[in-house]
Amino acid sequence: PQNLRFQGQYLDRETGLHYNLFRYYDPQCGRFTQPDPIGLAGGINLYQYAPNPLSWIDPLGLKCTHFAKNPKQLHASIKDKWGHSMTKRDMRELQNTVDRIKLNKPRYSNDGTPFSNTHTVGNPNSQRLDTGSGPYREWTVKTPDVGTNGARRIVVDSKTGRAYYSHDHYDSFVEINLGGWK
């Protein structure tokens, strides 16, 4: 029988544990049985096993890296992702758009219209949404003091109801929870 396990671990048949050069991993409870031997202090749990490395990669840039449950978290995500501090007027326009989405009341010409989710919109290097679902509906978030509608949008997945805010006209997204907005 084959004794190799995930990520080069070797099965110790006597104990049922997986050996990883300097310590044992218990597949039943999903953690190592000894703390990190080189003392990297990788967080609170020194016995944890690294998550699946295949989920860490994003070669096509399709994964949303930020999620916000409410306006305060979105403000922090926008500052972290794009380096922009939202003003009270910016946040008010964002709240107005969320209200229009919830009430299904379009205000601008593209509100509620289908969003193609392709690289043909805006920058060719832009991020596509990778939700495995769709179709998507697009809603304008008015940018204060800009003559046109501006670049900000919220895109809503019609099947799942998940919503994504783009501060830079579809170049990248922050996932938002519309239920967290009052």
Automatic annotation (TrEMBL):
The keyword Nuclease applies. Residues 105-136 are annotated as: Disordered. Residues 110-130 have a biased composition (Polar residues). The keyword Ligase does not apply. One of its GO terms (molecular function) is RNA binding. It comes from the Bacteria. InterPro entries: N1-like, Rhs_assc_core, Ribonuclease/ribotoxin, T6SS_VgrG/RHS. Keywords: Hydrolase, Nuclease. This is Type IV secretion protein Rhs. It comes from Affinibrenneria salicis.
